C-alpha cells in the first residue's frame, strides 16, 4: 500500500481549476510535497465554491476542467513523481438545484417508482421540500411552465401526465410537496442542511453508482489515496469502509473522524487513520501554558457574569440542537418506538441520551457500547422521571440490527457536530485558541510528558494516519491559534487589555452588546491583526449566528448584529482603540511566530503523514470558512523558495519566509529519507529552561522546538540548558549548524526557535 510522505491540500473551485493546480505542481514538488491532495472533483451544484455539494457523482466537474483537465493534472503529478489524493463525499448529494442533480430530479419526477429513489434516505412520500417563503400565500407564487413547476428561480419536474390544470392542482399531483423552509423534511439530511440529501451507500447498487467514477480513477492508477468525508453520517461506516477497501486495495485511505480526548478509532476499520484533528489538538496543547487557565477563567466570569461549566454547556447545546434544528431527526427516531410508550417521554428520553452522549457516535456491535451505556446512565441520573422510558429504550439502542439503534448512531454525530463545533465553540470564548475541531476547550494546555505519550501512541496505532494544523474546516488557522496561545502566558496583561478595549470602545460610542462575543471579537482582532474590515465583519456575522444566543441564520436580530458590527468598526477605525489593539498585537506577534514555527516543525516531524493546507507554508492568518478559501499567492511563495534555495536564511519577519524554510526542509527530509521517519524517542533537555524545549527523535532525525517563548524570555533565555542527542554527528537542515551529543540550546537555537537535525 502506498503511503505518501506528506500531502498538500488544494481547495479546487472556479478560482483554482485543474489547469491551475497542474501549473502549481512544479512548485509543490520543489517544496518537498509527497502528494497533491484535492477537495472533491466530481460535478457539484452550480456556483459551488467548495465541491462538497456533489450533484452528479458519475462525472468529473466541468467547472474544474472536465476529464481533459483531470488528465492534465494527473500527468503533471506523475511527471514530478508525486501522488494524488482525492477527497470523496459518500454521505450526501447536493439537491439545492434539482435540475443539476439527475438522480434527484428523476426521484422527484417518478417518486417511489424511480430507480433513483433508492439512492436517497427518503422516509415519507410525497416528499416534503422546504423551499417556500415563510408566509401563508407562498404557494401562490408557484407556476406551471411547460413540463416543470417553478418557484421563482427554482425548477421542479412534473410527473408524467400531470401538467394540466392550475398550479395548485398540479402541485398536489406531484410526488413531492413544496413546503416552508422551516418545515420538517421527509429525507435524511447532512446535519440540518436541507440542500444536502443523505445517500444510502450501504446499498451495493447505490455504492457502485456513486463511487464508480472515483474508483475508476483509482483502478487505472490516476489516484493513489482517498480522504473520506464524514463517515459518521453513514448507516454502517465499518461496512462502507470494508467495501471501499475491497475496491481500492492499495489506496491510502484516511477518514474525517473527530475523536474525543481518549477515544480510539475502531481498529477494525481498514484505513490508515484519521485526517489528523487529534494530532492538531496535541500540538496546540503543548504550546499553551496551563498556568494561564485560572486568570483567563476569572476574566471570562468577570465579563459574562457567570462561571461557565463546559460539560454543562455542551449538554445544553446538544439538547437544544436535538430538539431544535435537528428536531425532525429526533421525531423520526421517536416514531420508530411503538405507541405502547407515550410519544412525549420517548422524545424527551431520546433527546436526553443524545445530549449526554460523550462522543460523536458508536459503531455497534464492535465499538461504542460503553459510550452508549455511559449516556444512558447519565440521562437517567439527570432525568429520573424518564427512568422507565430509558430502561425500555436501552435494549433497542444496544441492538445493532434495530433501526432505532442505526438511526440513533447517525443522529448522535450530527447533534455533537452542530452543538459543539458550531454552537458551543462560539458561546464559550474564554480562550478561543482551544476552540478547535477535535479539541477540548476545557483541557487547558498539555504538559510535555503528556504530549510525548500521545505522540508515541500515534506511532504505535496510526503511523500512517494524517496529521494537520489547518484544514478547510478549522475555526481559525494554525498561525492565528499560535499567536493567541501567547495570551495564556500573559493572562493578567490580556485581562487589562480587554478592559481597556472595552473602555475605549465605550468612549467611541460603541458598546459591547454581548460580553462573550465581545471577547471573541477582541481575540479575533489581535489574533489575525491586521484584519481588513470586510473579513472581520464576515467572520462576526457567521460567529454570532452560529452562537445563536441573540441572533441566528434563521431569525437574524438586526439591531444586535448592527451593534456588534459597530464595535468591530471601532476596533479598526477609531484612532485610540485601533492604536491600543495594534499595540497588543505587536507584543504577541513575535512570540506567536515562534509558536508557529514550533507547531509546524513538530507537526511535520511527528508520527503520521503531515498535511499542509494551501498557503500555510507562509504566515496564514485565516479564519473559519469561507475566509480560509481566499486566493493564495503561489508566485510569491515560489520566488521566496528560490531565494532560500540559493542560500538566503530569512529573518523571522513579516515575509513568513522563515516558515517556508522550515516547511520546505522538513518536507524534503521526509520525501528524501522516508526510512528515517519511524519510531519515536522523547528527548528531554536539562537545565533551568528545560520545560521550554519540545524535542524528540525518529530514526536519525531529531526535531527541537521552543514552547512558552514569553516565559523563556522572562527567565533570560536558554542559559545553561542543554539537549543530549543520540550518538552521532548532526547537522541542522535549517542553518547548517553541526553538533554531536550534548548541545547547548542557546547555540542550537540562536537564529530560529526550532532546529531540524539530520544525522550525517
Give a verbal description of the structure:
With 760 residues, this protein is of the alpha/beta class. Among the domains are: 7-91 and 201-275, Alpha-Beta Barrel (TIM Barrel); 98-197, Maltooligosyl trehalose synthase, domain 2, CATH 3.30.1590; 309-427, no CATH class; 486-588, Orthogonal Bundle (Arc Repressor Mutant, subunit A). It contains 25 helices and 24 strands. It has an 8-stranded parallel β-sheet with strand order 16-15-14-5-2-1-18-17. Strands 19-20-21-24-22-23 form a 6-stranded antiparallel β-sheet. Strands 6-13-12 form a 3-stranded antiparallel β-sheet, with no helix packed on it. The radius of gyration is 27 Å and the shape is globular. The model has no long low-confidence stretch (mean pLDDT 96).
Short description:
This protein is α/β, with parallel strands linked by helices. Among the domains are: 7-91 and 201-275, Glycosidases (TIM Barrel, Alpha-Beta Barrel), CATH 3.20.20; 98-197, 2-Layer Sandwich (Maltooligosyl trehalose synthase, domain 2); 309-427, no CATH class; 486-588, Arc Repressor Mutant, subunit A (Orthogonal Bundle).
Euclidean distance between termini CA atoms:
30 Å
Radius of gyration: 27 Å
Major β-sheet annotation: 8 strands, parallel
Strand content: 5-15%
Average pLDDT rating: 96
Structural class: alpha/beta
Q: How does CATH name the architecture of the domain at 7-91 and 201-275?
A: Alpha-Beta Barrel
Strand order of the largest sheet: 16-15-14-5-2-1-18-17
- Name of the CATH first level of the domain at 7-91 and 201-275: Alpha Beta
The total count of strands amounts to 24
CATH fold-level assignment of the domain at 7-91 and 201-275: TIM Barrel
